[in-house]
Amino acid sequence: MTTLVIGANGQIGRQFCELAQAAGVPIKAMVRREAQRAWFEERGIDTVVADLEGDFRHAFAGCDQVLFTAGSGPHTGPDKTLLIDLYAATRAVDLARELGLSRFVMVSALRAEDPQAAPEKLRPYMAAKFAADAYLRSAGVPHLILKPGRLTDAPATRRVATSLEESGGENTVSRANVAHALLHLVQARALVDREFHLLDGERAIAEALA
């Protein structure tokens, strides 16, 4: 029942991995470079080195679920956005289907539902997420899609909302709350083929993501 964490070295990925390790949830952290391995292994987290722009099939060994929280980052161009946020995501979905994994948990974005409405510099990223989400829905793989709002570095409150109406119109969510939400979702094995918006709010995570 091990979850492969693709994008483990990202800001959300690291927080999630620490939470999962503390909670005794079996995970395997996938990192791109050997130098990134030490941070995870110092915390007792099983780690595999694999590059999303290369062959990463070996990373799936021993895993029955995938959490995809990788992203090309704000400082790369549209070429990396296509390679990581779209092409690598669809390849990961294909591998999950081929290998018969039980579920694929995708971290998307609230604005990916309407990329044209996003700020101009974010449109390629949101378009890639839009297409990756659509591919996952059509792939026949049991899945969850989590769509956080604009990310902040605020501390975890573990209180969230799943709509702008519920959040009072605020479209932000802390990375820490996203990590806690993902910890809930990877353990909620009965949840399949569902999509959730995620914003900071007032409801407990287990209640909101039910």
List keywords for this structure.
two-stranded parallel ribbon; 21% strand; 210 residues; alpha/beta
- Distance N terminus to C terminus? 21 Å
Radius of gyration from the CA trace?
16 Å
How many β-strand stretches? Answer: 11
Biggest sheet strand order reads 3-2-1-4-5-6-10-8-11
Oligomeric description of these chains: single chain
* Mean of residue pLDDT values: 95
- What's the number of helices? 6
Q: Report the major sheet.
A: 9 strands, mixed
Order of helices and strands: EHEHEEHEHEEEEHEEH
The stretches of 5 or more residues where confidence is low (pLDDT under 50) are: none
Work out the helicity level. 25-40%
| Estimated share of beta-strand residues | 15-25%
Q: What would you call the structural class?
A: alpha/beta
User: Which outline best applies?
Assistant: globular
Explain what this protein looks like in three dimensions:
By secondary structure, this protein is an alpha/beta fold. The chain has six helices and eleven strands. It has helices at residues 11-23, 37-41, 78-99, 123-138, 175-187, 205-208; strands spanning 3-6, 27-31, 47-49, 65-68, 103-107, 143-148, 150-152, 159-161, 172-174, 194-200, 203-204. The strands form two sheets. A nine-stranded mixed sheet has the order 3-2-1-4-5-6-10-8-11, with helices on both faces. Strand 1 (3-6), helix 1 and strand 2 form a beta-alpha-beta unit. The chain is globular, with a radius of gyration of 16 Å. It starts with a strand and ends with a helix. The model has no long low-confidence stretch (mean pLDDT 95).
